[in-house]
Amino acid sequence: MNLRKLALTASLGAFMLSAIASTSAVAATAKEQFFPVLVTRTGPIAPNATPWANGFIDYLKLVNTKGGINGVKTVFEECETGYATDRIVECYERLKGMHGGATAFQPLSTGGTFALTEKAPIDKIPLITAGYGRSESQNGAVFTWNFPLLGTYWVGSDVAIQYIAKKLGGVANLKGKKIALVYHDSPYGKEAIPVLEELSKKYGYSVQLLPVAAPGVEQKATWLQIRQNRPDFVLLSGWGVMNLTALREAQATGYPRDKMLGNWWSGAEPDVADVGEGAKGYSALTLQHGAERNSKVVKDILAALYAKGQGTGPKEDVGSVLYMRGVLSAMLGVEGVRKAQERYGKGKVMTGEQVRWGLENLDLDQKTLDAMGFAGVMRPVQTSCLDHMGSSWVRVHTWNGKNWEFPSQDWYQADANTLRPMVMLASGKYAEEKKLKPRTPEECNK
Amino acid sequence: MGFFLETLIGGLMAGMLYSLVALGFVLIFKASGVFNFAQGAMVLFAALAMARFAEWIPGWFGLEGSYLGTAAAFVVAGALMFVVAWLIERLVLRHLVNQEGATLLMATLGIAYVLEGIGSTLFGNDIYKIDVGMPKDPVFLFEEVFPGGLLINKEDFIAALIAAVLVGLLTLFFQKTTTGRALRAVADDHQAAQSIGIPLNRIWVIVWCVAGLVALVAGVIWGSKLGVQFSLSTVALRALPVVILGGLTSVPGAILGGLIIGVGEKLSEVYLGPMVGGGIEIWFAYVLALVVLLFRPQGLFGEKIIDRV
Amino acid sequence: MLYRENGQFKTSYAADQQVFPIAQDRWAVVGIVVFAFVAVPLLVDEYMFRAILIPFLILSLAALGVNILVGYCGQITLGAGAFMAVGAYAAYNFHIRVEGMPLLLSLLLGGFTSALVGIVFGIPSLRVRGLYLAVATLAAQFFTDWVFLRIPWFTDNSLSGNVSVSNLQVMGWQLNNPLNKYLFCLAFLTVFALLAKNMTRSAIGRQWMAIRDMDVAAEVIGIRPLFAKLSAFAVSSFFVGTAGALWAFVHLASWEPAAFSVDRSFQLLFMVIIGGLGSVMGSFFGAAFIVILPIVLNRLLPEIGDLVGVEISTAGISHAELIIFGGLIIFFLIKEPHGLARLWSTGKEKLRLWPFPH
What ipTM score was computed for the predicted complex, to two decimals? Predict the structure, then answer.
């Protein structure tokens, strides 16, 4: 390479650097509430995370067709994370200042949640982790900025045991039973363990822990162990291709699928569609909602967006399980803003700090939800300073070979008597480590 | 006893599949001295092509519901792998002759990125289905001998058979055909081979093409088992200990290494795993390979490295 | 014209053996360091600090460590991520288990622990070499991944296996804003880079290079391969481990083993090879290339799309990013197999002759 080329390369590099610097300074426009969207549209997680992102964005678009949040339009910006924590941090830094400041972040990754938990309080931006993230962050007195709305993995574990007890005909029959947990070997997968072990002391069943190394495409040894021990039930905490492989191996070793119960990240269409009939009878917890193709909100989205060709993703995906989770996640963020506007001024753009108050005082009753088109999709949510989760209702749906459906309309609620002490203990430990003083009730009411 | 046998058989079958991926590594290393990290990406690419063409071709030509569509997809995907091999030789390898091993290794990682990107752009990044009619349900043998019977996974069994046949064919190809001999000559000594008139570039294309076909077969088998999705490219990481255990330059080494690793990791996970909390199979495979290397630094069947000063 | 050594006469051995024998080089390096310490903080915004500069500095340090092992001693490693993890978790344990442990000491002890582990995993290098060794070092990678996931003691019995640190300070100096974090990492990097530069010029560095170039010949002239190889593993792991501790403490503040996965190991090896084997400068170039390029591509592609009038989807951008990134790697390897550092020295050669090249 000669000198000229070298100089050219150098100046090109300088140009690129200046390009970064310039794009990071997008001017703030008035009357727009900015929702950053961290997406995973490539890599191993993409089949599961893409419908979530599409649902999220479609809902934000739907809000705009209805006139925004009291007249404030929503804007959004995507950033691809590839499900890698360092890319999530980069995206967070990139998006947090855009369009006058981010409303709330939803990383859709437990590892990412852990990393952002340390950053959000400094930047004063709330984190919404609907159905994932750290379970002890339910205690808002310590985790001021985290909102694991609708449910945590601990809720999931507790309900899983309730479900099994019901199948066996009562908690007394749990005694002496063997339950295996096949989990993704990461903080995400391990979150399910403490509650299962706590409850095993109470009910006298035994837990067998079977970790699967990410990404989870090799599970032959795991299922051989299951065949050997013949547990009465198998719980599955998988994500992405791991769920698919688990069901394939269950089929290959002849383990009955109706004795398997996944958590709500292991019970969507991409997890079972390829197995088809082979997964028939497999059940999974739901974060209240299942596949809701007949709900009003889905019909609204189809009419307002897809009929005009403004939909984000393929039309077939609208209303699928993970799509609905995206819709719900976006809705919770939007409602946080709406609530904040009640206090800080209707029709104004809310800052992260104001939205935090809104999320902490969220009160969506059934009437409001029904009016928004969520009838039959979810139950009321009411948050408070000590309870950033707001609701712990769970249903169980079953794969019939072609679709997810609810065999019964039973709703389960996590047992607060079991979970609350654990949440307080774990969040107390966190507060101690960080030398944080939990907020007192007076500080909460400010 | 029944359970031990099951684990052993499961390990052997998993090992056969590892061998299939490992074979791709060995073929390319033998002929061109390139440690091809893109093998995993090639498996993904081939499987994606196969899955999508099997979906598209019947629509184009109206071959609904027949195996003809699948067969045509296999042929088209094979042709595509040939194009890929030719492009890799033309655009990358040709320009990197005589570079160090590490540089070539990095170049193949670059190829892996490009293939993953192009594959996802052309064929999408959802989960796709390859249906070649593999049976999914297990059979139980010797139910009178062992309680619960001896479980054999039919799909794995057929896959192992296909792998074995493929290995046999490759061996024949290498031993009996003129091209095969030319390949072996190139593997032994590039310069000597060139001096007797063997065209190096063409040989490389052929070798990458064969590796591409092996990747296609591996992709079809794994894809029919797990569904075709991005994680397929990580099977390469499972096959690496196989390659170094067997020796980088030995085809029988890849086969035997695969069986040893497959059996070793399944037995360790099932019998040692519960004592230490499980999840040990992946590092156990590597440690097993490492221990063997301490005694035989060139792998079980690799050519001895002779240093001349 | 401007860059030449004519007229600079060395009158003592000391002067002849300085780190940068050419005055312009010396001033340039001093200038860059001053620029980095004084001017950069005035010029850039928070995003640049947090998302680009801090990761760049820390990964440069790690690349420097990998370069010592791969570039100077010729032992290919794919296990660098493992040593980053060891450094991070060891530093974490020193930090929380010893009351009143200064941060600086925790980080360095993390590096030190990593060095010890490095020696253990370096032992196979005495028998195994080349690509076999590269794959064998993956054993370290997968083993440490497993250890930190499975043994609760290392993660202070945290329920999920995730650990975090906060309220970091060095002798009363709070590491709570991006500027301080940047300066802290920069100080580390400056000291370590000087250390590396000098180490590679000293007896031990020459031993490493002798082993790299031909180990049998090196043995004949009296270099002990055992000492040379294991010391390279130890020093390299020390650098990488310290970088890992910084990555965990300063950049992420909360982490899980996946932060140091096998992808990280590949990334580090990339940096070294793209940057230039056996060159301190090359480690910086490589780190810049690997850290900044994907981000630049990710941000530039939509704008290019706007210019042409097509809207590219997020997925399309990431796919294009993969293709261009891979393509550029291949391009650079073909054009300059010795790395970006070689381009740099070619440039310097040309500058010496300029403007009269004949």
Answer: 0.88
